[in-house]
Amino acid sequence: MRSRNDPMCPTQAAGCCIAPGFGDLAMGSRCVGARVLRGLFLSALLAGTVAAPGASARSGAPREAAPAVTADQGRVAEWKLFTAPDKAFSVRLPGEPTTRVQPGGATYLVRINRYTTYVVFASSVGVIPIGTSGRVPPIREILETTRDDSVEQLRELGGHLVWSKSASVSGDACITFLVEFTPKGFPRQLVLSRIILAVGAPRYLSIAYSAPADEFQEPKAKDFLDSLTLLEGSK
Length: 235
Description:
It is a single chain. By secondary structure, the protein is of the alpha+beta class. The protein has one domain: 3-Layer(aba) Sandwich (Protein Transport Mog1p, Chain A), CATH 3.40.1000.10. The protein is about 15% helix and about 30% strand. It has 4 helices and 12 strands. Strands 4-5-6-11-10-9-8 form a 7-stranded antiparallel beta sheet, with helices on both faces. Strands 2-3-12 form a 3-stranded antiparallel beta sheet. Strands 1-7 form a two-stranded antiparallel ribbon. A hairpin with a 3-residue loop joins strand 5 and strand 6 (about 115-125). The radius of gyration is 17 Å and the shape is globular.
């Protein structure tokens, strides 16, 4: 736990909104039996209502390697390779993460000085950011809505979307986006986030790097995000 003398970082000052799922369970997330939710997604896939890169991975095919990063993970190659206890993912981190486990998922946070944070959130199996109506939206819609919700929560801090791009990680659909915001009492921040929807589990993961705008290293941030690989625990 954070001590009284340990000041908040921008992630905490922003209400833990920079990585969807960090802190309290993302608003609107649905928690149902994994088998039931997987069936809903598979039905949507068969009906052609869910279009996602790497859909073949749901049928038991081997997972694809994480794209866009070289074998040595580029600028984060020397960082420790951390594997989640449930084998959901592995990622390169610049230190030992602080872990917070809740019913909705687990958060792994590394904080460098007061301003820079590296954070990964992995939801529990069966937790997906969709409503309770029973409708399963297209995967792209789920990802874009989750992104927009996280940005909206930063509006009062001047938060706005700089850019956004859809792609895939280990065969699962993801969305990567850059947000600018200014938490009260902190310098202007940039945060690069990625949300991944692992349909086979089913679960979702988010990973984010946040730093002051004048210290933000986008190439290193991208290598950090690209170092995350989904493992057997997310199949």
